Amino acid sequence: MQLEKYNIPVPRYTSYPTVPMWNQDQFSVDGYKQTLQTSFWENSKEVSIYVHLPFCESLCTYCACNTRITRNHSMEEPYLRRVLKEWQLYLQEFPTRPVIREIHLGGGTPTFFAPENLRMLILRLFEGAEKSPNIQMSFEGHPANTKATHLQALYDVGFDRLSLGIQDFDANVQKLINRKQTFEQVKEVMEAAREIGYTSINHDVIYGLPGQTLVTLNRTLDQVVGLSPDRIAYYSYAHVPKVKPTQKVYEAFLPSPEEKFEFKQFGKKRLVTEGYQEVGMDHFVKPTDELIKAQERGDLNRNFMGYTTDSSGLLIGLGVSAISGTWTGFIQNEKVVENYSQMIDQGQLPIVRGHLLTKEDLFFRKHILNLMCHFTTRWSITEIMHHGISINFELLYQLEEDGVIALEETGIRVLPDGREMIRIVCSALDARLNETNRSVLFSQAV
Q: Of 425, 438, 432, 439, nearest to 393 (Cα)?
């Protein structure tokens, strides 16, 4: 990879258009509700649910998520009551009972909440809906506070997938990012989860954190591989201090772009050598994992929760800052807990912004998704006649000349050695990206 040439700010493309590029002027809540109705039937009444549980007892300074730092656990029940009321507001929009295809609990720290409160939340979500026979249920846990009681309570209501935020095991790195958990705590949680019956455990590991070296990173990977998680999300630290000012405190300790790229290559090689297979741009899974099977079938998907086998085109986000999406529209909830609560108490969906996709958006959304999941995409001559003027062909020609892609009349194929550049390739199909907004809103490609 030519770092000086291509290490520029670009989105991660968990959606298109990316959230900062949404057009508020053309958005209306009524318009979004229409897309909701259409998507409901197009997806055979199936919905995926993401619940954002924002509370954390301490601030991890690297984190770019929407969180509320508190040790006041009396906030749990009032917050969950409002999340469930928001779900009731969605049920009123649906013409009949939905079928829940997927539930994911994210944060923040979902295991901030008491096990009995999480159990209540899930049971109440199911009251107004049917449960798909192929339902997938997963949650994110902080190794330092995920107890066997959390694991058992959630398993009892259908969860069998767990994602643990490791980030890095090195004590100095953990101190710099204020993220503290020991190897022993992670091992204890994993052993308890497997004994209970969890079938898939994921580790999140970040490269490019302050204080990291190849030595410390290799030691972390030794420990991660030794625990043998089913999936490893090995992804780049996103440095966006203009968005998250807390990241400024350790800027002097960040690795250089050259070092960070070396970390990326080193980790990828290490994980593949250990028997994991790469899926997309940052996921590594065991050969029997269903993500591999989905990639082979050609139906791997990517959404705000990352790579998934879930084919539902209707995602309902519940809670502060949560994002919902149909194929033709997106909305985001209010980010402040008190404002969110007030809107819910007034009986209105807590929508503060959104985007209704144009025909051009839909064209680029399809092709960016294809590239992110399968590293190839095909278009028709008619599509290019209508939308080709918005493609950055100058960048594509450069990428072809540098051996990153094969550019053809009817599409793009990312070459094996060019897969590290997938975000850059996708940016050539981002009609809403420009030099002004990219530098403020997005992290570097490496």
A: 425
